[in-house]
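Reading group handout, session on sequence-to-structure problems. Before we discuss, look at one worked example. The prompt was deliberately terse, the way you'd type it at a terminal:

> structure Reverse transcriptase

The input record follows.
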Amino acid sequence: MVLAAVFEWRGDQRSQDLRPAPREVQAERERLDDLALESWALRVANTTAGRRTVTAISPVLREWVRRTHGRLTYRATQILSGHGCFGAFLCQIGREESASCHHCSCDEDTAQHTLATCPAWARERGVLVAAVGHDLTLRAVVAQMVECKEKWQAVLTFCETVVSQKEAAEREREASADAPTIRRRLTGRRRRQYNLLMPLLDGPRPTDSGELAGR
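And the output record:
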């Protein structure tokens, strides 16, 4: 951890009968923080999982980690990760027979389809575009999110509004008389997966995470 490294550095300074000024301590903390972030960026760049999310966040990783606004929600994380109530994902994990969208005629319902093209969410998307612009690639949206809290909130509002409706529609399908039993057994699993994803997606700061420090 960066804080532990700073503590050790100050101990070394004291052992040499040195008393660094507050600005020197801050400079050392920032230096170690930068090293930790660089190490984490390299590690994330080499991962094979979650490439869509990693590719979107990597260009603004420093801004993402050091932002002073915004927290992710369960539904926003679904849009970012692609793991959620999207036909392609549900089909992949055996919850749906087809990857098609239940809200339009598209053959593949993905997080990006939901975010950028599904006509069912045109009204909600119009509000989002007014806030973040017409480029709704995930990379562009993430870049807008870190700019200010208003844009961050606009993305969260879209995610909450749209994904909650998709979840409600999914529950209705699962409750139908011919719904396979396995569908009912999996309730709550996605939220547990979300809790595992949060350290990556929702701002693990270099000063707080052993993953980012001392490597």
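Points for discussion. First: Residues 52-201 form one domain. Second: The chain has a mean pLDDT of 80.
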